[in-house]
Amino acid sequence: MTATHQALWVDRRGTFRVGPAPTPTPRPGELVVEAHAVALNPVDAMPGVARRFVYPWLRLPTVLGTDVAGTVVAVGEGVSRFRIGDRVVGFASGQERFRNDPAHGAFQHVVVLAADLTAHVPDEVALTDAVVLPLALTTAAAGLFEPDQLGLPLPVGTPVKAGDERDETVLVWGAATSVGNNAVQLARAAGYRVVATASPRSAALVLGLGASAVVDYRGRSAVDEVVAALEGHTLAGTVAIGAGSLSRTIRVARRTQGTRRVASAYPSPVTAVRRQLARPYGVRVSAIWGGSPARSAVGPAMFRDVLPVALAHGRYRPSPPAEVVGEDLASIPAGLERLRGGVAARKLVVRLRRDPDPR
Ligand SMILES: NC(=O)c1ccc[n+]([C@@H]2O[C@H](COP(=O)([O-])OP(=O)(O)OC[C@H]3O[C@@H](n4cnc5c(N)ncnc54)[C@H](OP(=O)(O)O)[C@@H]3O)[C@@H](O)[C@H]2O)c1
């Protein structure tokens, strides 16, 4: 009889149901992980119709979720970096077009991960904290480092010493978001000065992650204030996150010296129009896909080279802070409902304990 474990399935109408899934064995280059924590992302909280628009290839029913942390229970051929029992965090790629496989979705007790998209979690970091990272990290890294986005040089393992920083600035608009928290930290790790936007409730968090200046994005004068904060510095590129971020960051890029590249993590139907309108002013707009590092050199660079070292030395913060909103798979839909209502500088996380399959 095939072994099974419990998974949270979603169907074509967006209805969730906990039920059995076949327990996988890893293929070459893969790990199988027992999930102890999963994090919830806005993309998981989309209604079924919107999901079909964002993931038209997705075969349903499937298992959603991208962020998983747990312990390794099986190691595939050719994987030398991990052993059974290791504490890890990884990017579950089940929804990506190239994968389209429920076994790789995060919302279940046993998850398949690509070893290249998995990092060790040091003992002093809780799995419920580490799990806030994967999709927000890959989205920020895609925007900053993919050659068709801002194309910045990747961070090196060692921290940039004061005085050795680049004389260039990255603008992170919407820095209080999960993606923004990672964009600030990664840009700093790559040696850039960071100017950010966030509302006053989140300004201290964003400054604590390394931003030099924080402007309230909601103010009428936000664009002028950001331009002032950038004065005397060369702009290396902009990551635009959140509703209204693209139009305003294009206005900033037009008024500053440096690279007029804007990578948008908030692509909408008007993004293509804005991209065309910005072009005559030398502003190059690109749309970020957070899963692209799963197929490029950027994902392995993050999970293999940057994250494990930075976490072990306390140089990278799993941020925004986790808020545990449930203890089992069945509590995920209520957590997604809460996410739809909006969260402020928090990542909603569900802790999992493996239930023996009742069958
Ligand atoms: N393209 C991709 O592949 C991809 C991947 C992941 C996420 N995303 C998108 O990126 C965005 C952020 O997702 P997330 O999970 O990082 O968000 P999140 O953690 O849920 O963001 C919460 C924060 O959003 C900030 N915010 C709300 N409205 C804003 C606005 N109009 N402009 C700037 N900041 C705003 C608030 O900051 P304050 O506290 O400062 O008010 C709040 O604290 C979402 O639109 C999401 O769909 C895209």
TrEMBL record:
Pfam family, one: ADH_N
Residue ranges occupied by any Enoyl reductase (ER) domain in the UniProt entry: 14-350
InterPro entries xrefs: ADH-like_N (IPR013154), ER (IPR020843), GroES-like_sf (IPR011032), NAD(P)-bd_dom_sf (IPR036291), Trans-enoyl_RdTase-like (IPR047122)
Single GO MF annotation: oxidoreductase activity, acting on NAD(P)H
Protein name as annotated: NADPH:quinone reductase-like Zn-dependent oxidoreductase
Source organism phylogeny: Bacteria, Bacillati, Actinomycetota, Actinomycetes, Propionibacteriales
